[in-house]
Design goal:
- The chain is an alpha+beta fold.
- The chain has a single domain, classed as Metallo-beta-lactamase, Chain A.
- The protein is built from 7 helices and 12 strands.
- It starts with a strand and ends with a strand.
- The model has no long low-confidence stretch (mean pLDDT 96).
């Protein structure tokens, strides 16, 4: 087993986000939606799980049109825990939406771990005829070039299913859930149950049984695959965490900052030390 320090770095907030997008069947309600990625550190080896967005025209349009606040890029967020973009050796991409993969070009030396199925699905969506363009919603047009640069440099690791990417760190597919080739991360630290980083297959605690993990699983509202696959994948994640929901770290839940030691900065963004 390996010991990783785990950090949550918030890089944007979206007020009044509808619960219907987070929980299938939610007819009303809204909440603050935090956007963050994870840092895994073991000695000198530092990895990210997802990498936020960039500062392109596409991203600025998304930030402005939705009303994001305090949006910031990785080169400005990582120094909050004493890191630079050049310190990141590996980036595990849970899925291909702009807010998870858009920051790749800030890391020109990092290995990129993503499911081949997700790459193929990005291209299929982007090349869809006009009446299918809704499928391309949330895709950054610069993603294909960023992946091509990583591939040309020999840094792209296109995966086919379960893969050990680092000592004690395994990715597992959650195909046909939030996206066609989503994957989640299982970190097998020396003490306690494994930590599970679910990507957008579990955006909030309700997707994995609530804050205590005792409620029925509610799938995410935005799913390009099936609701059944979302539920079954969430069940797999809880099983991987030995049914301890505190070891599952949803991707967009404001309450996560109440569970672990957190520092809030003047811009309102937060840094959280999980372990």
């Amino acid at each position: 087993m390996s010991d990783y320090n785990i950090w949550i770095l918030e890089y944007a907030q979206l007020p009044n986000y509808p619960d219907s997008a987070l929980m299938d069947g939610a007819a009303e309600g809204a909440r603050l939606l935090p956007f963050y990625y994870f840092v895994l550190r073991q000695g000198d080896r530092v990895a990210l799980v997802d990498c936020g967005g960039n500062d392109s025209e596409f991203t600025r349009d998304m930030v402005d049109s939705y009303g994001f606040r305090a949006y910031s890029t990785p080169d400005k967020i990582l120094p909050r825990i004493g890191l630079r973009t050049d310190d990141i050796r590996d980036i595990i991409v849970t899925h291909h939406h702009w807010d998870h993969i858009g920051g790749l070009d800030y890391f020109p030396h990092s290995q990129v771990w993503i499911q081949q199925r997700e790459i193929d699905n990005w291209m299929a969506k982007w090349c869809s005829p006009p009446r299918l363009k809704r499928l391309a919603y949330g895709l950054d047009p610069d993603t294909s070039a960023a992946l091509a640069r990583a591939g040309g440099d020999g840094r792209l690791r296109a995966l086919h299913g379960v893969t050990v990417v680092l000592p004690g760190v395994e990715v597992r597919p959650a195909y046909d859930t939030h996206t066609a080739g989503s994957q989640y991360v299982v970190i097998d630290n020396a003490e306690g149950a494994p930590w599970v980083l679910p990507g957008d297959v579990a955006c909030v605690y309700e997707n994995v049984g609530g804050l205590e993990g005792t409620e029925p699983l509610i799938p995410v509202g935005l799913a390009h695959g099936s609701q059944e696959r979302c539920i079954r994948s969430a069940d797999e994640m809880l099983t991987a965490a030995r049914d301890d929901v505190r070891r599952v770290l949803p991707m967009h839940d404001d309450r996560i900052f109440e569970r672990f030691p957190t520092t809030r900065y003047e811009d309102g963004l937060r840094v959280c030390r999980v372990e």
